[in-house]
Amino acid sequence: MAGREKERIIGLERNVFWTGVVSFFMDASSEMVYPLVPIFLANVLGVEKSLIGLIEGVAEATASLLKVVSGRISDKIGRRKGLMAAGYGLAVLSRPFIATASLWQQVMGARFLDRFGKGVRTAPRDAIIAESVDQAHLGRAFGFHRGMDTLGAVVGPLCALVVLSYFSKAYRAVFWLSMIPGACAVAVIFCFVREKRGATDTGKKIMRPGFGPVILDWRFRLFVVISVVFGLGNSSDAFLILRAEDSGIAASMIPLVYLLFNLVYAMVSGPAGILADRFGKKRLILVGFLLFSALYYGFARVSGPAGIWWLFAAYGLFMGMSEGVGKAFVATVIPPQAKATAFGIYHAAVGLAALPASVVAGWLWEERGPAAPFYFGAAAAAVAAAMFIGLIVVDRRKER
Question: Residue 8: beta bridge partners?
Fold first, then answer.
């Protein structure tokens, strides 16, 4: 394959392997922090649920807007690695701000910087992965990446759990320690990820006014719309954490619950990518929408700690079979010269839905009770599933 690297590590293309390692370290860092942020805000700083929803929504919306900009810049200049490294570096720099925060505004600023970094790095990183493999193996590549990412998300909460088991409510210490794996992620980028020069030679062409119709294949456009509908009900995972605490899970055990979620997530991601390559990405995406609707209904109905453990495990199953497969599907309906731009558009549309989703979830929680956000999410996922069935039917008719 012209321009693609020949070197393989454990059967994987070099860049696929090393971007997976990068994501392992960064997710270990992020997941030491993320499960504790809503607890820190609610129990230490006394912040209301609606405000927590706003903080998380603004943070995710920031990342989403930047994914489009970063993707377009990456395609235009024909470079990926520098933007990727800058994005991960900004996330590491956010940790001291949250560790020293005494006001919710400071936490919001730290989350903003962290998500700013995510917005810068995501589209170029996904483009590196997509450019490193044949289309027939996209599911495997993104599945491996998601699996490594989530394996880090297993290690992160476990580290947080160990610290909190010895030092009760030592949230700030966990935030400081999270800088170590984050710094390792940045180091791996500089040392091992290779810039694939020439992969975006046609980058200048897509910046012309006529580039939109080229990348906006009807399947791409419709899938983005479906993903936004789904995203409107998929509020921040902070509400899952708050629901776990509301159902009787002790705050010190939250990292362990989140570890279970991430462990299932990591175990499922790789096999799900391989299944998607073999049996069809659209089938797994549809099953994922239906599973999400069922498990959010379960979060609405749960009444005790035992049910929470099962629901978080089921949520890990959903994420493992959906996250990487969705990206792999997008990669099949966009041209090679516009990969970063298209990934940026996709991530931006999905992420922008997180702001109203989280704000609405916070309002529903306070006005209608803890179950209301999850009933809403279940309904949105069911609508998205129906729309995706329509996409499958129309696509089959066009193929005839």
Answer: 13
Task: Report how far Cα 53 is from the mean position of its chain's Cα atoms.
Answer: 17
Rounded CA separation 192/145 (Å): 15
How far apart, in whole angstroms, are the C-alpha atoms of residue 25 and residue 185? 5
Return the minimum-mean-pLDDT range out of 162-166, 289-293, 329-333, 337-341: 337-341
Q: What is the CB neighbour count within 10 angstroms for residue 260?
A: 19
Q: What residue type is 160 in one-letter code?
A: A
Q: Do the domain assignments include residue 200?
A: no
Q: Can you tell me the mean pLDDT for 149-166?
A: 84
Cβ-proximal residues to 61 (8 Å cutoff; 6+ apart), any chain? 351, 352, 354, 355
Answer yes or no: is 4 within a domain: no
Which range of residues forms the domain containing residue 323?
12-193+207-399
Helix (H) or strand (E) holding 326: helix 305-332
Reported pTM: 0.68
Cα–Cα distance, 144 to 147 (Å, whole number): 5
From the CB of residue 298, how many other CB atoms can be counted at a distance below 10 Å? 17
Return phi, psi of residue 62, to 5°. -60, -50
State the residue for tokens 């010269």: 337
Query: How many CB atoms within 10 Å of residue 93?
Result: 15
Task: Tell me if 7 is assigned to some domain.
Answer: no
- The DSSP bridge partners found for residue 12 are 9
Distance of CA 399 to the CA centre of its chain: 32
The tally of domains found in the chain comes to 1
Q: What is the CB neighbour count within 10 angstroms for residue 374?
A: 26
**CATH number of the domain within which 49 lies:** 1.20.1250.20
Q: Has residue 3 been placed in a domain?
A: no
Closest CA to 339 of 5, 40, 74, 24: 74
- The token pair at 22 is 């990068």
Longest dimension (CA), the chain: 64
96-114 residue pLDDT tens: 999 999 998 999 899 889 9
